[in-house]
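Input for the complex:
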Amino acid sequence: MDFSSDTSAPAHPRVIEALGRVNEGYQPSYGNDAITAELRGLLSRVLETEDFDFWLCASGTASNALALSCFCPPTGAILCHAESHIARDERGAPEFFSGGGKLHLLGGVGAQIDETELRGALARIDHDFVHETPAHVLSLTNLTESGTAYPAQQIAHYAALAKEAGLTVHLDGARLANALVSSGASAAEMSWKAGIDVLSLGLTKTGAIGCEIIVLFGEARSKLADLKARAKRSGHMPPKMRYLAAQAISLLTDDLWLDLAGIANQRAQEVANMLCKAAGTELVQPVHGNEIFVRLDEDTAAKLRAAGAVFYTWLDGSSRLVTSWATGPETIDAVASAIS
Amino acid sequence: MDFSSDTSAPAHPRVIEALGRVNEGYQPSYGNDAITAELRGLLSRVLETEDFDFWLCASGTASNALALSCFCPPTGAILCHAESHIARDERGAPEFFSGGGKLHLLGGVGAQIDETELRGALARIDHDFVHETPAHVLSLTNLTESGTAYPAQQIAHYAALAKEAGLTVHLDGARLANALVSSGASAAEMSWKAGIDVLSLGLTKTGAIGCEIIVLFGEARSKLADLKARAKRSGHMPPKMRYLAAQAISLLTDDLWLDLAGIANQRAQEVANMLCKAAGTELVQPVHGNEIFVRLDEDTAAKLRAAGAVFYTWLDGSSRLVTSWATGPETIDAVASAIS
Amino acid sequence: MDFSSDTSAPAHPRVIEALGRVNEGYQPSYGNDAITAELRGLLSRVLETEDFDFWLCASGTASNALALSCFCPPTGAILCHAESHIARDERGAPEFFSGGGKLHLLGGVGAQIDETELRGALARIDHDFVHETPAHVLSLTNLTESGTAYPAQQIAHYAALAKEAGLTVHLDGARLANALVSSGASAAEMSWKAGIDVLSLGLTKTGAIGCEIIVLFGEARSKLADLKARAKRSGHMPPKMRYLAAQAISLLTDDLWLDLAGIANQRAQEVANMLCKAAGTELVQPVHGNEIFVRLDEDTAAKLRAAGAVFYTWLDGSSRLVTSWATGPETIDAVASAIS
Amino acid sequence: MDFSSDTSAPAHPRVIEALGRVNEGYQPSYGNDAITAELRGLLSRVLETEDFDFWLCASGTASNALALSCFCPPTGAILCHAESHIARDERGAPEFFSGGGKLHLLGGVGAQIDETELRGALARIDHDFVHETPAHVLSLTNLTESGTAYPAQQIAHYAALAKEAGLTVHLDGARLANALVSSGASAAEMSWKAGIDVLSLGLTKTGAIGCEIIVLFGEARSKLADLKARAKRSGHMPPKMRYLAAQAISLLTDDLWLDLAGIANQRAQEVANMLCKAAGTELVQPVHGNEIFVRLDEDTAAKLRAAGAVFYTWLDGSSRLVTSWATGPETIDAVASAIS
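Predicted:
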């Protein structure tokens, strides 16, 4: 019963198999290999467009920071939620990669940006007022850090507001698959069709060893050379790129990534339902993906820990339980028997 | 006949097997897993000391830049060879990670720093003269960018000079195994016993998918927390660290890394010998590892290309041919028949 | 009737005279001149200690950012008020000078940090939790951005809390003289006696052309060489330092800086009193220095503008009026006649 | 007999007078004042064009670094002479301001870039080769660090080569006036007419307290907003800009800056001639401005020191003597009597 994080789970077996399959013969280095080329075709089917470029990156933090640094100058700011991963959990990566840019933090329930705050922040941007740092990018996260999902329409609405104000729109999709499954939107609907310019499409938490895809859509493609230069000098241009591409191919083929996210989401629902049967236990956030934020009564918490369940206590005293593709039905039974 | 780079070769099969072996069950994230713990024991045997700390990193560029940034402040400089990888081939990674530090470039044949230049640069360091940027680190590379190896005694001599001047000494060991095999030195003799404070121990070019070990020795261990913070914010703290540790374990176990480097070195010797039989062809550098720098006569070059050989032309007009663990005896035969 | 800023006013005549006085003969460059040496003695009397080092800087923004960058590593954060000058009005200078450090913003009325928020932020610092950016510095501002003054005891209380948590304490004293005059504290009581480690002692807004003194107290003096190196490479090591020193000497001699601040404070009180006579006009903040934050009724605002008064409208709709040493009694009369 | 530096000399009296003259009444902050506006007209006459924008800066180091950072991205490089001020004497300012850009050092006698080296470096630029850092800017210096002057035609020739390769051309004119006087070129001929895009026009060494003008010509004007933002966040946007503008006006009016440089150049010639009469003393560089690089025989050096002459010994053992507007005829006599 390890609910500590979806990154504690093993990779999906097909990912390992894929590594073995591409482990033959010579391939050009730095992304010029045949496997990366093959991935492009697959990605274009998944994203339903040809109007994109991409870069592979083993790290979610770097994927976000590289994406942001191409659009936020050192003298600029990024609008994001105060509880977003880029603000809270990346040790200043956006500031580092952008050369000293700022995060402008916005509030909102469920780690979703409040529309009034967003409108206020957009209205305040004044590139002629040299003393304040103007926002250049809006960064959204789906699944959010509270485990909730923005509907694609909300993403589209916020993106439209941001673009009207001249901003580029970034989506941190470390758990994009979970949001897609729960909302029923396609990857296209949740990204470029909604106005996303640059997407961090995460696969690590879904089942890869370590694989994220930075996708540039439309006009944002003009930043590809800059992205590559920044990737190179930050150590995110692996010579043996084929092994990243293979991971992505294995997960995107036949929608395996969505199937795995579906399992994780389903398990999260089941665990949440189980926990809520206990008196005094209630959800802190709706469960839209594979994360459960719940206020456990002391007795239930103690029983879970006694049965070997691993999970984190959050700043507000609630508990976070994360499921993954590897969370089996036996885990649900174990939870049931632990708290009964 | 792909001699473009050792990073064009596939990973060694045992590396892939190792990934499969650790792909079971849950493991704590970010380096707190059992596999990384196991690696520590193995590393201590390989390095013949317990007085070290380490961090795993998929990238050689990041491995160097992270190591350097812990010891060179933004207001300081790094002494290195003008042709070193950190100066030429990392797109400003040391400057980026250090926050604007400088590389102070030194000359010398075979991409080895000339002792007179080194002594001159060390003598010029004056921390009280605020206008010039004083050196804080000496960075050596073994195998060098010209495919030559410093003997361990030379490393020790230069490290002693640098330390007398108050510098920290870094060794870029992207092809350390090749240098160890050709020089007969042990990893300990080439690192901490020679006065190296921080080592980038590379395994990617030896046979890993992407795996480098940053090793801090002795007093340099005080920088471990700083190293981790910098790794985190540069996207070099993979949540699923076990898969990096597994690569390292597979290669360091039973000296596989040295065996693979030995094969690559042996093939390089054979190819070099073969090429030198051609009239008008001569080595530009002695072959101390798995890289051949050779001036090919036009006819030989044309024959090689016609037979499908892939290799780079260097700035000075010479050719670079790189072998790897995967360069088989049939490649030697192919070279022979191509140029006969 | 220019109330736009104290930086719109001319310098005090004695400042100009001082420049003429030192404009004779040769002086060593970069702060090694006799005038800067003379200033040291004067400063030690003003600050009532010998246990300090200092650096002169023409810019308040640089004075703050240089001071902060010596104590906040690129992987660290600075605690400050959400409305502080370093957060709002310096275009990311702290992030730039620190190499990508973060500002951790705290709330509180009157632009003074709320104690509960401060305690909460201090309690959350965990240097072992690598994902979050730990605070290394507490930066206070006196006079605050809302024109209020922290009493020296409050500074001392906050500094003690911060030091217990291992932080360095910085005071942005761009309008320190105004705070000293209104609170009756001495410069020593408001700085090192209250636990301030590094002080930006501003004279520009008080009456200089452009002159700020970065003062390092006690253990913070160990950063002097780092401060100089950072000053040099950011263009804040003027070769002809004597002209900065002369400004500081002219203002600190015979407490001229405090006299000028006293005049500005007195005028602010008079203007505030005058404005508050108008029905519908009320102060938004208490007037502790030379800044008036007031909610003007439309009629009064219109009358003032019609009479030529210049002042800014703030984000919350209130008006900010700033007085200076050059605000004469005739200005008070002009306000009176404008709104009568 | 102070030959240590032209920055050891006092400011010209007219500079001090100008400060007094503008020290009346209120002026808008941050460069929006009437004096700065007046300077624009004067500058346009001096530069013989209206197609420019400018920014005032008290520091030569910042003037160079700000200018360069607008045109060299963090992933790019700047071509400059290995002995240039930006490479040797600014403690990494270009790296800091550019966010980790690189200086690519070129050789050449008299601190003037060798044409073959320049052509070689330009030919090597390959924006598609991600591993190496491509040059974006050529930075020339006139007067050079060796006291020699490039003729305007040479500047124009190098600028044309650089522009063909897509580079922006910067001129560090810390001692521009000295080069103009000795070469007979006008400021226009040595800057925009020669293809200079961005000029650091120095007045500090000529006779100001501290005043440099960053001038953007033609297409480079598109960077004005970026320049201002960078100036702001590096502490180079003084609120009381009028005092910088006044310095510039006093020196540019009636060509005072050229007259002062003419005096300094003349004194340098006289001192050089005097010194060369001593057996065993010879110039190391031709004297094109106000700097003398001379190999003094020991006896002459001793006599000069004994007579109170102050000057620096250079790295190569030669001596540097710098004259200024304040070097009077009595100094020539003193030198004569010292060495006779």
